[in-house]
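README: folding subset

This subset contains proteins for which both the sequence and a predicted structure token string are available. Records are stored as plain text. Below is the entry for 1-aminocyclopropane-1-carboxylate deaminase (295 residues), shown exactly as it appears on disk.
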Amino acid sequence: MNQVLPSVGTIQISVKREDLLHPHISGNKFRKLKYNILQAKRQGVRTLLTFGGAYSNHIAATAAAGKEYGFKTIGVIRGEELFDKIVDNPTLSFAKSCGMELIFVSRDVYRQKESKIFNTTLQERFGDFYLVPEGGTNNLAVKGCEEILETNDIDYTHICCAVGTGGTVSGIINSASNNQQVLGFPALKADLSGAIRKFAKQDNWALVTEYHFGGYGKINAGLVTFINKFYTETGVPLDPVYTGKMFFGVYDMIVNHGFPENSRILLIHTGGLQGIAGMNKELAKKKQPLIKIEI
Ligand SMILES: *Cc1c(COP(=O)(O)O)cnc(C)c1O
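--- output ---
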């Protein structure tokens, strides 16, 4: 569903509310899991195993999807110190309440999660499982994200999307018309163009790298103010890790003439709202202003 937002000068703006796709399997994570779940079913595997950090939208979504579609789920979580802090962490508590088994590993071990030896150890412990990569990105995930754009979206000149691993924006690039411009807004500092080139079948895209706010999961008071103001003015809730940064960037670019006159911009709301509670806990600890969105 596309929601029309107030125009800024000659520039028209709409938001695709992928955050409303499902109450717990957030926006793009639903798209990314869809064909992987079908594949796991086809292979007759009963367990989904995946990886993520303490506040990962992907961990929350996989746990919820496992519950809904009848899979056992295992989440390998970065940070062994978290094992006795599940109750304090809204994401991990939610995943656990969906039945996900949480395995906590040190950052060193986590870095080797793609290695054969780690995989063998997991197989010995849990038996057969369907492995969903960190962030959920693989060919089947990109295929799912190719279903985000709809026929009528051809009327937009620009499509903007937050970027983590690049899977979601790749799906959008593949399904966009070649006279549309797709802009990805990385939420972290790394160079993600190589990751996107691996999946993208067209070259009508660019990355806008000025709005990561210092790195993954890093925010500042200006971003919180923007998210709160945007929610009050439009009713659209944004998350602090991905969509908040992307929306901030798009509006900043509009003010600074980063889009041509008469552009018609579609912003993809990829969800991620479950992360607000965890971020607010961190902000409260530092006595900083909170994100005023109740989900
Ligand atoms: C995971 C996530 C992204 C990033 O998606 P990638 O496919 O990893 O680039 C963007 N927005 C939200 C809300 C997410 O949870």
